[in-house]
Structure formats: C-alpha cells, structure tokens
Design a protein that fits this description.
The chain is built from 17 helices and no strands. The chain has about 425 residues and is mainly α.
C-alpha cells in the first residue's frame, strides 16, 4: 500500500487565474505580511494603551503573547479546511473574521475586550499565511514556485522592520485605536483582492471534518517531510534568539544608545530582506543542496565568532551575526520548496504544519534568551553553534536518503 504522498505528480495544469503573475505575487506578499504587521505595528502603542486602559504592562502584554499562541492554533485549523472546502472560501472567511476582529479591537473599551479581540484576530489571521503557501504550491511549479517563495520570505522579513515605524507614525495623528482600524483596512484590501482569485483545489478532500484535520497526522507520518521540517525549523532558531536579545545586548551590555542599536538592527534586517534574492543569484552557479549545506555551516561558524569575538565591540558582534542572518534568509526558499515537494497532496495541511512548527520554534528561541542569563552574548553564540552542528549533521544525513524527493535543478533559470 503506497502513501498518497508518494503518488506520481499531477499532470494537470494549474487553474488559470484572472490575476496576472505580478498581481498574484503581490497578493501573496500581502497575505504573508498579515501576522508580522498585526504583532509589530502596535508595539509602539503598548505603553500608551496600558495607561489608557488602566492596566499594568504585564496585562497589556497578554495581547501579544496570546496572539502568538492562537495564531499557531489558527494555522493548524485553516490549512486542512482549505483542502476540503477550497482555498478561496476559507481565505475569504478568514479575512472576513480578521477584519471583524480588528474592528472589535479598535472599539475595545477595556483590556478584556481587547484580549478577546486579539485572540479572534489571531485565529482568523492564521488563515492568510497558511493559505498563501498552499496557493504557491497550487499555482506555480519549478523556478516560478521558488520565486513566489522568495517574495513571501522577503515580505515576512520586511514587514517586522517597517511595521513599528508605521505604528509610530500613526500614533502622531491618531490613538492606538487607529492602528487597529488601519490593520482592518489592510484586511479589507486583501479581502476584496482575493475575490478575484479562482479556486485552485481541483480535487478536494472528500472525508469527514474530523478526517480533514486528520490529514495533519497523515502528513506528519511522511518521514521525509517531518524530518526536513524539524531540521529547517531548528535552523531558524538563532534568528528569533537574536530578535529577543539584541536590544538588551547593544543597549544594556554595550551601553549604546537606542539610535545606535537601531542602526545595527536595521543593517542586520537588511541582510534578512536581501537574502532570498541573493539565493536566486546563487542558484545560477550552485545546486540547492550545496547552498543549504553552506548556509547551515555558516550558522556554526557565526556561533564560534560570536562566542570568541562578540564581546569585544558592538561592530564585532554585528559582523559575526550578519552572515548567519544572511544564511537563514537564503535557506528559507529552497527549504520550503523541498518540504512542499515531499507531500504532493494536502497542500493546506502541509502549509499549516510548516507555519505552526516554525512559529513554535521561534517562540522557543525567544524563551531561551529570557532565562536570566548574566550576559546574553555567550548563549546567543551557543544557539548559533547548536543550530549549525545539529541541523548540519541532520541535513547531511537526510540529503542522501532515498525517501527524500529532491527538487530538480534548474540552474541558470
């Protein structure tokens, strides 16, 4: 008995779309930006919001913590449903719920109402990134699929950089309520834009609702997919560890100003944004396997550099971290493409699991750096070294296994 994930690839062409490739890529980029916009855009308003609602910061921070928890749950709910009922209707339901939740947040008059609104916003918002990756798998093949993944990854990295600035600018002309009205506006634009999509699921899952979510278990049983997912999820652990610790290292340990910290943070962020496009250039000369191997090795090398040189000067630390950030950005498009290739059916469930585990590993990275370390530089280096050694060893073993379905090389495409 053969696993459906090992069935021959479908030969039928993707469903023709009303939107041209540029319009599709732009819509996918917007859908992928929802979560970082929803979390980072209102960060500048947190102190004012807590004071306005008369609650301590710890209570106000629940609006952020619970958002991540319920977003992760949402991604697992919506992806499999889109395999049964179609990408378009589930996306439209999710976006409608997201807009309604934004309005609820904007109209909140106490912290309980705001927390409930944020939980609903997270649950509904989980549909957008999960279905965005599934749509890439449905609509594109080969180099075009990889370009779609590159665009999604660059937007996921760009949105957290610009979102706090957008939030700060909005606070000059409105209150924190206005930030949620703006997020609702983004959701409405995506909702109206998504109406132009044509359904991409040509053979929907015919099982019961319970069996629909049971597809998550079926996908997990695909050892090639699951082992790759664990490996590549751990490979992004250093990025989240850096995000959680960078301000404390530069401002508290190195005694730098917030402006200097912002400069180092922006320089590192620029590496993350440019990395997916650098990947496309690298494919002209290198195979995907070699690119992934080199990038994971770079994580370990950066870890050694951070532990050995990172404590000397802020610039030394930045120069040790930037290659790792670049490597993590380069690795995301080929690794996602490779994971999608392992399971030819249930793209919604596959996409949900990718988003879920990477979100959970990111939270783990942040927790590791919040363990009360005396200095954060050494543990940050250890996280990089751990990712390089463990993921590197796992990748070298997995890449040679016969059950791993490699993506055909299209060098120079």
């Amino acid at each position: 008995m053969h696993d459906q994930s090992q069935s021959p690839p479908a030969t039928e062409a993707p469903v023709p779309q009303r939107l041209r490739d540029f319009g599709l890529f732009a819509l996918l980029a917007l859908l992928s930006a929802f979560i970082p916009l929803s979390t980072d855009m209102y960060l500048p308003a947190l102190p004012t919001m807590a004071a306005n609602l008369g609650v301590p910061m710890a209570r106000a921070n629940l609006t952020l913590v619970l958002f991540f928890v319920f977003y992760s749950i949402g991604t697992l709910l919506w992806g499999p449903l889109s395999d049964k009922y179609g990408r378009k209707p589930i996306l439209l339901i999710g976006l409608t719920g997201y807009v309604a939740a934004c309005i609820a947040c904007a109209c909140a008059t106490n912290i309980t109402q705001l927390i409930i609104g944020r939980v609903l916003q997270a649950l509904a918002g989980g549909a957008s990134p999960a279905i965005a990756v599934a749509l890439v798998k449905d609509l594109f093949q080969g180099p075009k699929r990889e370009r779609g993944l590159v665009l999604i990854q660059s937007m996921v990295m760009l949105a957290p950089i610009i979102a706090p600035g957008i939030g700060a600018l909005l606070l000059r002309v409105t209150t924190w309520h206005g930030i949620f009205w703006t997020l609702g506006g983004f959701g409405l634009v995506a909702l109206l834009w998504s109406l132009r999509l044509r359904e991409t699921v040509t053979e929907p899952f015919t099982g019961t609702l319970v069996q629909t979510w049971g597809q998550l278990g079926t996908v997990v049983k695909n050892r090639g997919f699951t082992l790759l997912l664990v490996t590549f999820s751990l490979a992004i652990l250093p990025l989240y560890a850096y995000l959680a610790s960078s301000s404390y290292i530069y401002i508290t340990e190195f005694k730098q100003s917030e402006l200097v910290f912002s400069a180092f943070f922006m320089a590192n962020a620029a590496c993350a944004v440019l990395a997916p496009f650098i990947y496309l250039r690298l494919t002209r000369a290198w195979s995907r396997r070699d690119i992934i191997t080199a990038c994971i090795a770079m994580l370990g090398i950066s870890g050694v550099g951070i532990m050995g040189l990172g404590h000397l000067k802020p610039l030394a630390l930045a120069l040790c971290i930037m290659p790792a950030t670049l490597a993590m950005g380069v690795i995301r498009p080929p690794s996602t493409h490779l994971m999608l290739e392992q399971h030819r059916t249930a793209a919604g469930a596959v996409s949900s699991l990718i988003n879920f585990l990477m979100s959970m590993v990111g939270s783990l990275g942040m927790m590791l750096m919040s363990a009360g370390w005396r200095s954060l530089i050494l543990p940050l280096g250890l996280v990089h070294l751990f990712a390089g050694v463990v993921c590197g060893g796992a990748w070298l073993l997995l890449a040679r296994q016969p059950y791993i379905r490699h993506v055909p090389e299209t060098r120079g495409a």
